[in-house]
Amino acid sequence: MSAPLPPRESMAFDVVIVGAGPAGLSAAIRLKQLSTDLSVVVLEKGSEVGAHILSGAVVDPIGIDALLPGWRDDENPFKQPVLDDRFYWLTAGSAVRLPNILMPPLMSNHGNFIVSLGDVCRWLGRKAEALGVEIYPGFAATEVLHGDKGEVLGVATGDMGIGKDGEPRDGFTRGIELRGKYTLFAEGARGSLSKRVIERFGLDAGRDPQKFGLGIKELWQVPEDRHRPGLIQHSFGWPLDLKTGGGSFLYHWGDRLVSVGFVVHLNYRNPWISPFEELQRFKTHPAIRGNFEGGKRIAYGARALTEGGWQSVPKLVFPGGALIGCAAGFMNVPRIKGSHNAVLSAMQAAENVAAAIGAGRAHDELPDYEAQWRGSAIGKDLRRVRNVKPLWSKLGTVVGVGLGGVDMWTNTLGFSLFGTLHHGHPDSATLQPAKTFKPIDYPKPDGALTFDRLSSVFLSNTNHVENQPVHLHVLDGDVQRRSEHDIFAGPSTRYCPAGVYEWVGEGPDLKFVVNSQNCVHCKTCDIKDPNGNITWVPPEGGGGPSYPNM
What is the reported pLDDT for 32? Predict the structure, then answer.
């Protein structure tokens, strides 16, 4: 940069929260419930609260019940209770329904609700603002502020109006420092600042590697005669091979809406797999395609999700703050649910923060939060399913899922035949050379039931300010060519659900192209690149998808 930038302005709060998802907003609400005198700010990189929120979602209301007793008496987004709960094993031509009586009790969705999690966050945002919480959408936190002893003092937002060349453009605005006595990171799975905090403080020491999945979702509006409000169904098996973990969800709710999605576990080995194409194939199954006849696809998006569970949750606290929600990895994999634990963890953290500030403390650790969670409802929820993911990964879908079900049953009775199993390598280390697999010939999209990635990204309302620095950092171009391309046949062109990455040209003209304007902020590249050679950082605030009700 040719000239030094002016100093940033600074704002002081009692508590700074990064991320306006279920965890961040619940923490803010709980803090103001405990003390109206606390000053609380929530930063959100999306253009509005809910713009970057994507989930299935079937929500267990245990968290909302604890946070907002009596919420059922108010206007709320929990309109559709689950009425019909189904599980299927799919082959290419058949669907075998698994009797609900065989499912462990914790897998029941009785009493849960089908929602748009984005709408839930908008509702929580209004609740928070009514209590006096300040929410700043469109501001991406890009830097963690540290004191002389390394303690976290807050965060800084990114500068606005920097060009691709790194120089200020017309309209340049310096970022702002938001300083707090405590900072809570609620960025969701693979948050950019959470990742830095975990590394700086060694919070993952003695823990298993965090594991991830990629969830890809479409929202459809279907004819009245195709709509079955309250129906939810999950499946595993086809179209994935039996060594690749993942499965589907399909929920009927709202105004003739059907949410359909597919999750692929990111520890898959075959570099020819395309999670996006697996969702498209899934919709063509004879038992599935009828849900969409006469319907219209109206929204699309994708997001990474944490799958490590009990074994992979890092230490939650560090001097000056804590991790909450999916930034900490509190998702229950077999239930495909994390928002209930996000709310509960946010409440626990908020209660510890409020007590610390009330005692005159600041910028120190919150040891009671770290000590509490494993014995709380969160820990009980995750401990009972702790072996499902390792068994699935080690033994494949048929044997692994079967034994995982047995283990959930025995954990319901208070014991496990397996103790606590451990996860293997991080997801970046699981791909095998492309030459060991046959390329997958995915069907071409028909434009009615199945689609391509670019037309899908259009439905995500993704937009980034032009002429800004690329927010997907390829650390070593030579490594990308010699390994990602030459050994693994360019898996980034397939695992990215938004068509961000391309290999263009041949021989000495071969070039790795990054179409960062397509990015839907799923973070998969930051997780799955076989060399850890791609780092996702926030683009200019407000950029990315703008999901209306995902």
Answer: 98
How far, in Å, are 19, 58, 499, 540 from residue 461 at the CA level? 20, 24, 15, 16
> Strands, DSSP E only, in 479-537?
501-504, 511-514, 534-536
Which phi and psi angles does 267 have, rounded to 5°? -95, 20
Q: Which residue has the tokens 């009615």?
A: 448
- Rounded to 10°, the helix 339-358/22-34 angle is 40
Q: Other C-beta atoms within 10 Å of 469: how many?
A: 16
Residue 2 is predicted with a pLDDT of 62
81 token code pair = 């209770």
305: β partners: 213
Task: Select from 515, 511, 510, 491 the least CA-distant residue to 434.
Answer: 491
* pLDDT band per the 50, 70, 90 thresholds, residue 375: very high
- What is the spatial distance between Cα 489 and Cα 457, in angstroms, rounded to a whole number? 24
Residue 114 amino acid letter: I
Of 518, 512, 523, 508, the C-alpha closest to 544 is 518
Is residue 252 a contact partner of residue 229, using CB atoms and an 8 Å limit?
A: yes
Q: What is the mean pLDDT of residues 74-100?
A: 97
d(CA 77, CA 59): 11
Please enumerate, as own/partner, the contacts of 222-227 that have beta carbons within 8 Å and a separation of 24 or more. Answer: 222/256, 222/257, 222/258, 222/291, 222/292, 222/293, 222/294, 222/295, 223/256, 223/293, 223/294, 223/295, 224/256, 226/256, 226/258, 226/290, 226/291, 226/292, 226/293, 226/294, 226/295, 227/252, 227/256, 227/258
| Short-list 299, 301, 309, CA closest to 265 | 309
d(CA 307, CA 246): 11
Measured between alpha carbons, how far is 514 from 474 in angstroms, rounded to an integer?
A: 9
Paired sense of beta strands 231-237 and 296-306, if any: unpaired
Whole-angstrom Cα distance, residue 520 to residue 546? 9
48's tokens: 């509005």
Instruction: Specify the residue for token string 């002389």.
Output: 148
* Closest C-alpha to 185, from 276, 57, 317: 317
Provide the strand spans (E) within 231-354. Answer: 231-237, 246-253, 257-265, 296-306, 317-318, 321-323
Kindly report whether the global pTM for this prediction surpasses the value 0.90. Answer: yes
As a whole number of angstroms, the distance between CA 186 and CA 332 comes to 17
Among the listed residues 398, 374, 86, 130, the one whose alpha carbon sits nearest the alpha carbon of residue 240: 398
Q: What are phi and psi of 292, to 5 degrees?
A: -110, 0
Q: Identify the pLDDT of residue 171.
A: 86
Q: What is the DSSP string of 442-479?
A: PPPP-SSS---HHHHHHHTT-B--TT---SEEES-HHH
Give the pLDDT score at 541: 83
Contact 30, 130 (CB under 8 A): no
Task: Give, as one character, the DSSP assignment of residue 3.
Answer: S
Strand order in the sheet with 257-265: 95-98, 84-90, 231-237, 246-253, 257-265, 212-221, 296-306
On the question of pLDDT at 370 being above 80, the answer is yes
Q: How far apart (Å, rounded) are the C-alpha atoms in residues 40 and 29?
A: 9
Backbone angles phi, psi at 483, to 5 degrees: -110, -65
